[in-house]
Every structure is written in C-alpha cells, then in structure tokens.
Amino acid sequence: MKAISADEDSLKLHMVLLELEDVEKQIRGLMDQQAQLQKRRTVLETSRASAYTCKVSTQHGISTPSPSTPCVSLCMDRAPRTFPGVVSFTPAPTHLGPWVNQQRRHGLDPR
Predict the structure, then answer these.
(1) What is the Cα–Cα distance from 31 to 37, expressed in whole angstroms?
(2) Which end of the chain is more exposed for a tag (fewer CB within 10 A), N or C?
C-alpha cells in the first residue's frame, strides 16, 4: 500500500511541477506584455505632451482666442489700474546719470 501512496505522491509532485512551470510561463508572458504596454504608454504620453506644447506655442501667435483660451478684457475703463499711468524716476542725489555726462560733452553744463 505504501508503494501506491509513494507513486501517487510522485505523480502529484510531477503535476504540481508542471502546473508551476505553466504559471511561470504565464507570468513571464504577462511581464513581457506589461513592459510593452509601459513603453507604449510612455510613447503616447510623450507625444501627447509634445502635442500640447505645440498647441500652446501655436496659440501664442493667434490673434483671436480659441474656445479653450479665456477672453480677457483689456479696456482701461473696466480693468483696475494697478500702477500709475506715468512712471516717474527720481535719481538719488549722488547719482550722475548719462544725461549729466551728455550735457557736459555738449557744453550745456550750467557752471
């Protein structure tokens, strides 16, 4: 009776090994498929990003807004003013700007 049991165990072991080998083949196939899909995803994401960049760069040259571009009013009566209309610049007392050197060269110095 033990001989039959040992033969059954050997047969079961052989069946398990065959099944294990089959599962490992499936895993390798799935890993290959996963690698191919990841490459395709990378290619598609890269082309999608470059298409978006191309779309954005071409929109800068268009004078009329596209439907995806928000319309911003540039009318002065509606837009809040955040800076004075005329910017004045007063140099520091010790600053001799290029206009001083230019006046001296042309003999316009008041001295």
Answers:
(1) 10
(2) C
- Cα–Cα distances (Å) from 16 to 12, 104, 107, in that order, read 6, 102, 106
pLDDT tens-digit readout, 10-63 = 999 999 999 999 999 999 999 999 999 999 999 999 988 787 676 666 665 555
CA-to-CA distance for 81 and 18, rounded, in angstroms?
80
Query: How much is the CA Rg of the chain, to the nearest whole Å?
Result: 40
C-alpha to C-alpha distance for 102 and 98, rounded to whole angstroms: 6
Residue keyed to tokens 């290619």: 43
SS (H, E, C) 40-54: HHHHHHHHHHHHHHH
